[in-house]
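User: Just a sanity check before I run the rest of the batch. Below are the structure tokens for the first item. I only need the designed sequence back.
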């Protein structure tokens, strides 16, 4: 049965620098598929994918089958020889809030502590995930070199993220009155509550805004991916699709004036 190869699939996935959380989800789904099939045929796969009532889970099921099938084919096992015949269902994109520079100025004016202002600066200026901000230590911040280190990102790999001057200034103001190893002393849930209490956009809106603003200012997609901790361009495309026309105008304008 193909389940014998799941742990090897997990190991190869993680060694390739891909998100451990993604393969963990895929393994759970593949084990569920194994419980619903006797011969792991294409008909079984299509039936299992379509059986779930929500479009998002039908999509994840198909992605799990395709990811494992491709890997199995690449190593010569070919457990799912039909894997590329499993179509990933389309999912209607929902409009997602995306912060911009005006939102940042407005939000700063709503915050009255140096810690909260510095935290917002990291969300907007560095594009960190909420959990990554919560785990930041003071020793992870190198304000002289204007970089910070994310010790553990979603992919399981550390990364270095540039800190813009405005965020450096906010961090310096905060750290002058701060003691203790943690940079902000807030949990991921605590960050969400702080933003909500002040009527500020949620953390992921700032990460989306950071990606859009970085591209608008001429930062390459490769650099945005590296700083964000994305292993492919899929997330960049997803985050910026709604603003693609604006980004095209900005890029052509830079090209015309160079």
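Assistant: Here's the designed sequence for the first item:
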């Amino acid at each position: 049965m193909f389940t014998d190869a799941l742990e090897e699939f997990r190991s190869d996935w993680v060694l390739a620098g891909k998100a451990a959380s993604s393969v963990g989800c895929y393994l759970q789904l593949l084990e569920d598929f194994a419980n619903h099939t006797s011969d792991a045929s294409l008909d079984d796969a299509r039936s299992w994918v379509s059986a779930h009532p929500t479009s998002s889970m039908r999509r994840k099921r198909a992605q799990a089958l395709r990811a494992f099938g491709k890997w199995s084919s690449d190593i010569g096992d070919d457990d799912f020889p039909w894997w590329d015949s499993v179509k990933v269902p389309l999912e209607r994109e929902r409009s997602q809030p995306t912060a911009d520079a005006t939102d940042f100025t407005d939000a700063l004016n709503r915050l009255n502590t140096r810690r909260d202002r510095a935290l917002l600066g990291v969300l907007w200026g560095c594009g960190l995930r909420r959990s990554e901000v919560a785990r930041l230590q003071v020793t992870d911040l190198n304000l002289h070199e204007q970089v910070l280190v994310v010790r553990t990102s979603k992919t399981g790999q550390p990364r270095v993220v540039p800190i813009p001057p405005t965020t450096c200034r906010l961090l310096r103001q905060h750290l002058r009155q701060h003691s203790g190893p943690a940079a902000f002393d807030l949990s991921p849930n605590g960050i969400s509550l702080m933003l909500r209490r002040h009527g500020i956009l949620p953390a992921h809106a700032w990460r989306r805004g950071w990606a859009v603003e970085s591209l608008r200012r001429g930062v390459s997609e490769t650099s945005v991916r590296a700083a964000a901790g994305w292993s492919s361009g899929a997330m960049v495309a997803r985050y910026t699709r709604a603003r693609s026309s604006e980004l095209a105008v900005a890029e052509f304008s830079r090209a015309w004036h160079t």
